[in-house]
């Protein structure tokens, strides 16, 4: 099953996330390997890998990588970003039902991909798959947006992003209008997006899409991990393994597959 979101955003995802420090994120991942594993793993799964930015960085650091994503458009950008890399295998698969050829030493899932699992049964299905394809005592690292972020940063806010895309050496304007709506009772947040792509003739092409994330509490995620065979090793508020605070916007989870 493939995911139908990100068809409008795939082309501009990296542009609008240019401020993300992927190298520091990769440093955190390797620090977690050193903290929780006897030795660094050789083969990693980047689950919901998107445009492959993290996949490429970790491949460059010597890991064999599998990148799984449910969006064909995002995987097309990943292939474009990474070029031919014999250390990376990309697979178009749903994160709730993916299948691999064998087990891996660690699974990472970055940038709130888990929040897109909007039903608890979807969350359980994903965690069960991850557990199934991890080596015994393998490491699962993922992050989520916190309740604080959903309630105070997303809420019912609207945003406008603008930038330029390089099209064959010509830089063309692109704009993204983003409207959020968070329902505290259901803990679902909808994102309605319109992307306007400037064309060479001066006209604009409009692409619209909607996405939904679910807000999970720390307790819910810890229970889901434990119910699916994991030992929770830690929950952190940043790359320095510090404890989450009241105003923490992103929580980082580390869990070990018990088999």
List key phrases describing it.
259 residues, Rossmann fold, seven-stranded mixed sheet
Termini distance? Answer: 28 Å
Q: Biggest sheet: strands side by side, in what order? A: 3-2-1-4-5-11-10
- Count of folded domains: 2
Mean pLDDT: 95
Put simply, the count of helices is 7
Give a description of the structure.
The protein has 259 residues and is of the alpha/beta class. The protein has two domains: 175 residues, 3-Layer(aba) Sandwich (Rossmann fold), CATH 3.40.50; 65 residues, S-adenosyl-L-methionine-dependent methyltransferases (N-terminal domain of TfIIb, Single Sheet), CATH 2.20.25. Helix content is 27%, strand content 37%. Strands 3-2-1-4-5-11-10 form a seven-stranded mixed sheet, sandwiched between helices. Strands 6-7-8-9 form a four-stranded antiparallel sheet. Strand 8 and strand 9 form a beta hairpin. Helix 2 packs across helix 3. The relative contact order is 0.16.
Structure in a nutshell:
Helices cover 27% and strands 37% of the residues. It has 259 residues and is an alpha/beta fold.
Q: What's the arrangement of secondary structure elements?
A:
Blueprint: H1 13-16, H2 22-36, E1 43-47, H3 53-60, E2 64-69, H4 72-82, E3 88-92, E4 104-109, H5 120-133, E5 134-145, H6 147-154, E6 158-167, E7 170-183, E8 188-198, E9 204-214, H7 218-227, E10 230-236, E11 250-257
